């Protein structure tokens, strides 16, 4: 009986400590194109789309340094629906009553239809990183085709 109270306190302390440390860090609330479609119908909001490739060093650096920054996370989660997409995905994506596929899966540079439609530069080959910002009506308001550091990215998203 005399060991019950300290034992209970120890278990409670361990449980609380485990709970406190198991809380996930803040992160960008990335949504899929399917989720975006439903969200835009329910509550229109600006949209940020990041296109990347696994082999793209600047893309991976942005994911590691920019999209994990607390100020970036706060701004994106508050004011945007954020989508991140691997341009080489082989997934079929149903968006806006239309099916999009990667027609080039067995070729060199297998870029999916969605990034080709949304982030293609006129008279230039497709490149990553590519970022598209859209207004509440899903109209493009800005496109970037380069690495942006945290300060540059925050300036962009704060001014749109």
Number of helices: 6
How confident is the prediction overall: mean pLDDT?
87
Give unreliable regions as ranges.
6-23
- Report the principal-axis shape: globular
For the largest beta-sheet, the strand count, sense and barrel status come to: 4 strands, mixed
Description of the molecule:
The protein is of the alpha+beta class and 160 residues long. It has helices at 4-22, 33-42, 57-66, 70-79, 113-118, 150-159; strands spanning 46-52, 80-86, 93-95, 98-100, 130-134, 140-144. It has a four-stranded mixed sheet with strand order 2-1-5-6. It has a two-stranded antiparallel sheet with strand order 3-4. A hairpin with a 5-residue loop joins strand 5 and strand 6 (140-144). Helix 4 (70-79) packs parallel to helix 6. The chain is globular. The protein starts with a helix and ends with a helix. Mean pLDDT is 87; it is low at 6-23.
């Amino acid at each position: 009986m005399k060991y019950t109270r300290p034992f209970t306190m120890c278990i409670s302390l361990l449980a609380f400590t485990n709970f406190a440390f198991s809380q996930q860090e803040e992160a960008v609330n990335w949504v899929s194109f399917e989720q975006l479609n439903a969200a835009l119908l329910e509550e229109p909001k600006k949209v940020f789309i990041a296109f990347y490739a696994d082999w793209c060093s600047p893309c991976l650096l942005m994911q590691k340094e920019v999209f994990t920054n607390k100020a970036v996370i706060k701004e994106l989660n508050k004011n945007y629906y954020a989508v991140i997409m691997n341009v080489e995905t082989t997934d079929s994506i149903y968006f806006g009553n239309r099916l999009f596929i990667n027609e080039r899966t067995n070729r060199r540079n297998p870029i999916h239809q969605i990034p080709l439609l949304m982030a293609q530069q006129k008279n230039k080959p497709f490149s990553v990183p590519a970022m598209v910002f859209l207004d509440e009506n899903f109209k493009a308001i800005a496109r970037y085709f380069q690495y942006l550091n945290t300060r540059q990215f925050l300036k962009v998203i704060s001014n749109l």
